[in-house]
Design a protein that fits this description.
- This protein is of the alpha+beta class.
- It has one domain: GIY-YIG endonuclease (3-Layer(aba) Sandwich), CATH 3.40.1440.
- It is built from two helices and seven strands; from the N terminus they run ββββββαβα.
- β3 and β4 form a beta hairpin.
- It starts with a strand and ends in a 35-residue tail after the last helix.
């Protein structure tokens, strides 16, 4: 299986640090078709309280990001049929929060018209964001208002 590429080099897990996850692009080397998505590095599982206690417990584990090939059923079937070596997986951006990952995933999906182009496997863009979760991303060089 080919690993993830970041900044033109194999991704070093040491870079994860306190990042939540990443936005990625998977490209079929044979057809050129792509898929843009996001993935988290860790999963949080809620466990029942210990005997005699009332507070639920949380357990953090690594997600399956190392073996992940997107949530699109067509893409997963192609990986199953042709093997993972046919696909190139690139991390486009490391994200500190879930909201940041959702924002940049949707931004890239709209920017590249993934739903209108036959060059992409994406079938759905689903995002719900709150402005307050993105305050750290604000920069002064935004486009002028319409």
């Amino acid at each position: 299986m080919t690993g993830w590429i970041f900044d033109g080099k194999p991704f070093d897990p040491e870079l994860i640090g306190n990042h939540y996850g990443f936005v990625y692009c998977i490209r079929d080397r044979e057809t050129g078709k792509r898929y843009i998505g996001k993935k988290c590095f860790r999963n949080t599982k809620t466990l029942k309280p210990l005997k005699g206690k009332t507070r639920k417990r949380k357990q953090v584990t690594d997600s399956n990001w190392r073996e992940y090939f997107g949530s699109n059923e067509t893409l997963k079937a192609l990986v199953e049929k042709h093997g993972s070596e046919r696909f190139e997986r690139t991390i486009l951006r490391l994200c500190k929060t879930a909201s940041e990952a959702s924002y940049f995933e949707a931004k890239l999906q709209f920017e590249y018209d993934v739903l209108l182009s036959d060059d992409y496997h994406n079938d759905l863009i689903m995002v719900r964001l709150n402005r307050s979760h993105l305050k750290s991303l604000k920069t002064p060089d935004r486009k002028k208002p319409l």
